[in-house]
Design brief:
BirA Bifunctional Protein, domain 2, OB fold (Dihydrolipoamide Acetyltransferase, E2P), 2 domains, alpha+beta, 8-stranded mixed sheet, 5-stranded mixed β-barrel, binds aspartyl-adenosine-5'-monophosphate
Length: about 450
């Protein structure tokens, strides 16, 4: 079949006006382009709502003017030329009158969900199956805009603090975080893994650039079906050399988070303000356990660990007791942390690793790292790890590495908590989790 050329409109000298710019065009002829959001047909008087990336515009049309839209499903792509006119009852106080419609691309089927409803009425799996269309809904587009704002807030804050953005491989021979949650793959004729984090690379790059950050995908073969885990997520990583104490890392993480919160609030106004004291309140791990025991959320003999219920309780506790949406939990047990974690020499068994909770969910993990080769070799021997896959990493330490540390922020988790939605999949355009590989 020959490709259709009917999508080329007649020569038109008017530039495209974006819907958000209509207020400055009242009384003028304008040309809008967008999607057919919905139509109210009342016979002689009809209302067409057009959507572009900046908003919604109402078009008033009589029966003759409506002719090109006969039988046209919602989401068809239209061009409308008409006069912008003040109309207090229209969205945005403006409507287009005396319109001429031109169909740029006719939809051939009605959308699987009604996008003009305030809320999407379908199950999450259905919405994800039909992501190409359901993402056009205002709520879903807002989540994507939020993700972009958060990532930009992170980037700009770290750039200002003298960090350099880096780009590290996502296929590697060794895994950094341990555990079984790795995706093995065949790399030509050798086994390899999708990286669980840029951990080893960002540390090596501290030896090169001192302060680095990365925004990129990481992969976790997370078998559990939860509202806070993805098999691929966006990790906002930072790593810095020449730290004095772990407090330097927590202060930097706070700045990054504050930049993210400010960018989010600027992009999506009207959300509940985030409570973010400076410095962020923090609680040693063992004290957090005591708070949870006192509340009956954990029993004294339980494994020292923060469960989701424990995190939720600490979130409520921090809000009530400390007027903070954030809580730093410091000094995690060394055994619970990866091999690169610096122990706390003053508290045997504990580390200089920390987590940051946001509204009761872990969104940041960080800590000071070992920085001497001998320490790495000792820890690897204690943990029964073969150092040979880490040879290139260890070389960095052999040739001088400053005291350093860093952190990683789970972007989707921040977005989930910021919007207050139940499932991380609601803020992810095309989420990956066990059982979903498409779209
Ligand atoms: P960690 O493994 O704790 O630490 O991950 C860092 C942060 O990433 C987020 N996160 C996830 N988000 C969505 N789905 C998942 N499956 C998932 N797993 C983790 C969380 C978590 O706090 N290298 C270290 C970081 C460092 O020390 O710099 C690391 O990757 O928000």
């Amino acid at each position: 079949m020959k490709p259709s050329d009917s999508t080329i409109p007649a020569p038109n000298t008017l530039p495209r006006t974006l819907i958000a710019d209509l207020p400055s065009r009242i009384g003028h002829e304008v040309r809008l382009q967008g999607f057919l959001h919905n139509v109210r047909r009342l016979g002689t008087l009809n209302f067409v709502v057009l959507r572009d990336r900046t908003g919604l515009a109402q078009v008033r049309a009589d029966a003759d003017e409506m002719a090109p839209l006969t039988g046209l499903p919602d989401e068809s792509v239209l061009e409308v030329t008409g006069t912008a006119s003040a109309e207090p009852r229209a969205p945005g106080g403006i409507e287009l009158v005396t319109p001429r419609f031109f169909v740029l691309a006719a939809a051939t089927a009605p959308p699987p969900v009604v996008l003009s409803r305030r809320e999407l009425k379908a199950s999450l799996p259905f919405l994800l199956d039909h992501a190409a269309v359901s993402l056009r809904h205002e709520d879903r587009r807002q989540a994507l805009a939020l993700m972009a704002a958060l990532a930009e807030g992170f980037r700009s804050t770290l750039r200002e603090l003298g960090f350099t953005e880096v780009f590290t491989p996502k296929i590697a021979a060794a895994t950094a975080e341990g555990g079984a949650e790795v995706f093995p793959l065949e790399y030509f004729d050798v086994p390899a893994y999708l990286t669980q984090s840029p951990q080893l690379y960002k540390q090596m790059l501290v030896g090169v650039l001192e302060r680095v950050f990365e925004v990129g995908p990481v992969f976790r073969a997370e078998p559990h079906d939860t509202g806070r885990h993805l098999a691929q997520y966006c990790s906002l990583d930072a790593e810095m050399g020449f730290i004095d104490t772990v407090a330097d890392l927590i202060a930097t993480a706070r700045e990054a988070l504050a930049g993210m919160m400010a960018a989010a609030a600027a992009r999506i106004p009207g959300q509940e303000a985030v409570l973010m004291p400076d410095p962020l309140p923090s609680l040693p791990f063992w004290e957090a356990m005591t708070v949870l025991e006192a509340a009956g959320v954990r029993q004294p003999g339980d494994r020292p660990d923060l469960t989701p219920a424990g995190e939720r309780h600490l979130g409520e506790w921090a809000r009530a007791e400390l007027a903070s949406d954030f809580l730093v939990v410091t000094g995690y047990p060394q055994d619970e942390r990866p091999f690169y974690t610096h122990p706390d020499p003053h508290h045997p068994g504990y580390s200089r690793g920390f987590d940051i909770l946001f509204r009761g969910l872990e969104i940041v993990t960080g800590g000071q790292r070992l920085h001497r080769e001998a320490d790495y070799l000792r820890v690897m021997a204690e943990r029964g790890m073969d150092p040979s896959p880490f040879e290139a990493y260890l070389e960095a330490f052999r040739h001088g590495m400053p005291p350093h540390g860093g952190f990683a922020i789970g972007l989707e988790r921040v977005a989930k908590q910021w919007l207050g939605v139940a499932n991380i999949r609601e803020v992810t355009a095309f989420p990956r989790y066990r059982g979903r590989l498409a779209p």
